[in-house]
């Protein structure tokens, strides 16, 4: 078989560009190619001849070979190998690779050739994923012009208010005096004036959700692990009957209100931070939560794994984003038909043309296919499953009493079998994706997306949320991050405003082991502090963080796997990142035996670390003191706290396990909610956790500094039954911490001020019925003005 992977493709023929976020470029911040897309040799030569006419021929040749934009096409992994056996390759099967690797030929700051590699990604797919997640799968899109499709919230100045969409006269022709908030306003898109659809009405989000008691009852139920049937029963207690679709609608409405409220609070917080003019340091923690979900039945245990990317603030515990690699808007079979079949049902859009090449055409690679944003084996299997589910229903429901009915039924089954054959021909025969032959399951709307695009979109949108300042990010060793983070935070890296630590700790430690190690750590730190006071190293005014950093520096050790192997996984064993990892002596926040790596640090520190081998045992005192503050800041505790709370409160987020031979595997029964509603539940819970649920929270740095408030002795007494006498008991040690929401700790103005000066969470009842989606626009001001007049209206005396 001829192997397409070995034929002479030029990189310029395959290169899809870098896009806004500079993917498909070198990820080494110390390389001349960092953030530079591919350029041709002739282009580089002409640029440098014009820029530096004094270059010698040898220097010009070197720039031509290794200047900015110099890359080469490298090999491909066997796991991406595909075989095409149909259409043009019917009698001549071809082996090809669905992914290609690019090697950087740029020059590092040390004068060496970089030679770092990366796989080709699609900038268009990343942009599509960012557009999907920016407004949470369209929840916050808002209204749009019916003529051109321009969204009102994208540019409110292009739209004008055009009156109230309500009756202005009664049946006698007399003007109607409105005494309540208008439920609908007319809006005109000025550039499309006179066109059909340019004038449209905008209603308040809660116009169709009139019963507040029912809304709050539904909210309380979904926040406490109730199933869809349980929600229906709780509302039916009052003698009312509500359908499933209405419950789903109200859950989606609650999601929209909560997300719009959060967006407005974040906007106000950013304005507040920028007006203060203070330097900002964002300490962020990022981790993944995996939901193993069975969408259909309890008998079919072929689960779908959903990855939830979560990032939180370390100081306050505020969870900025939770993004799931699942697109609930996608319809697999409709997408397949629109993408790979023309109007006559013939295959299209299957190959890419390479003019003036030995290979004139080849199957489209993953970054070239329109469906490359999805997990394509699951995508094609979902298309087949949808047709098989239809066949099962048709066989069961279509009449078959006479021959004509039997013939119609048989013809329909044969037609759908032909549709399945077309899907298999394209997916398996052309693109080389094997179809899952195991027991079928029903189809559902939506499709899992490739985690690397979801992860990139997550961090791109996170950066949009944060106010300008330095960013310190802590993650685990995730394989998808090395090719993404250097490009997403390109500007911050160049300005030395971004640091990234990768961290791991002993997750298998039992509770007694954790308690023992924390006790030993606190004892050792206290002794270290006392010794430093006697030696004059510290004084009474030395803050706790300085002492903790000195303790970390003093007891820092090089981390190895075994005795002589890299501690980090292979994705981090690259010239792009420093090879040295260290072990920390701190034992706090459940992060036992913490080990930290430093993929990206400020320039001077990063370049110093890159010179050290991974097994450097002797670390200088200066290096220890410079690394200690970064080790101190590395923590995953705020994300872990949120995930523990979510798993504890919501059964749909419970951790799936093997269960053993007797019990069997466990999984999340997704049939109680459809996929779209599951994501809505996660969003509702996250916003409620941030703004409306006060709870004690210990900042991980307070635990490292051993600043946790000591318990107070509370007196106790026991009453003797039948008398007024009491028996004194020994006092009990209790530790009471202030209960606040993450938003309060984060400095947001999201609270209710009490008369005694204390703060309570916002009133959910008042929050639900305000136009948060339109705040800051003329439409929101109009709704709020009417609401204010109604609120202050004095009732007439009888």
What's the short version?
The protein has 798 residues and is of the alpha+beta class. Strands 10, 11, 12, 17, 18, 19, 20, 21 and 22 form a nine-stranded mixed sheet that branches. The protein has a three-stranded mixed sheet with strand order 1-4-3. It has a three-stranded antiparallel sheet with strand order 2-5-6, with no helix packed on it. The longest helix is centred in the first third of the chain and has 33 residues, at 244-276.
What does this structure look like?
This protein has 798 residues and is α+β, with helices and mostly antiparallel strands. It folds into 4 domains: 119 residues, no CATH class; 383 residues, no CATH class; 113 residues; 154 residues, no CATH class. The protein is built from 24 helices and 26 strands. β25 and β26 form a beta hairpin. α7 packs across α20 and α9 runs antiparallel to α10.
